Amino acid sequence: MFLRPAHFRHPQFRAGIRDMLPVTPGFAAWGLMTGVAMVNSGMSVLEAVLMTVVVYAGSAQLAAIPLIMAGAPMWVILAAAFCVNLRFVVFSAHLRAYMMHLPRWERLLTGFLTTDLSYVLFVQRFPEPSEDPAQRLAQQAYLAGNCGLGWANWVLSGLAGVALANFIPSSWGLGFAGVLALLGISCSLITSRLRVLAAVAAGAVAVAAFAMPLKLNILLAIAAAVAMCLLLENRGLSRPATARAGESGDGE
Hints:
There is one protein chain. The chain is mainly α. The chain folds into two domains: 5-189, no CATH class; 191-252, no CATH class. The protein has helices spanning 5-9, 11-20, 24-40, 45-54, 58-69, 74-84, 87-99, 104-113, 116-125, 133-163, 176-187, 193-208, 216-232, 241-251. Helix 3 packs across helix 10 (133-163) and helix 5 (58-69) runs antiparallel to helix 6. The longest helix is centred in the middle third of the chain and has 31 residues, at 133-163.
């Protein structure tokens, strides 16, 4: 997917880069502080560099770092990372219809390079999968630009954090900029009452269960949002407000 010249020449490749650019400063700050946190927690420079390049999951890295340094059993570290990243099961289930025509290695590479933000931007631009080869090429080109810039931004900022760990105090809290960037783009997708209710349910559960170990509050928040959608999706709440208003006008 990301190695074909046709993708790089496609206009959607540049569109993917343009859509990602406004939020790269926030996620660069997050990556920078993740690199600092790895070194300051006692990891060697080599370990921090390898984790930055190979793991590519900021929330999982931040959850695993203190467990690794505390000498926690491997299953505890893996369970924590699993719980934190369980939201990607929902993402992959949604993206399945977009990706199943691709070879396995391309699907695996796409899964590795897809983040919360790239997923949100992609489904915002392409709300429905397509059987048309031209549209599929456009979607793949968009992901190539979007995910490619996101990966390069994260890795470079993480490596910068590793290199500058002795000069940047963790107390700066720059990682919160990444959270704000993701929150802003996520809020732009809340275009129906169902999505509002799902977001409120997920947020309320995440806060209420914040004290749970291994970031299990995230798992519960996802479950609450999914349950809310399953219960209410057949009640007309999933349509945009503008569409419902239009239908009301036609009926009059």
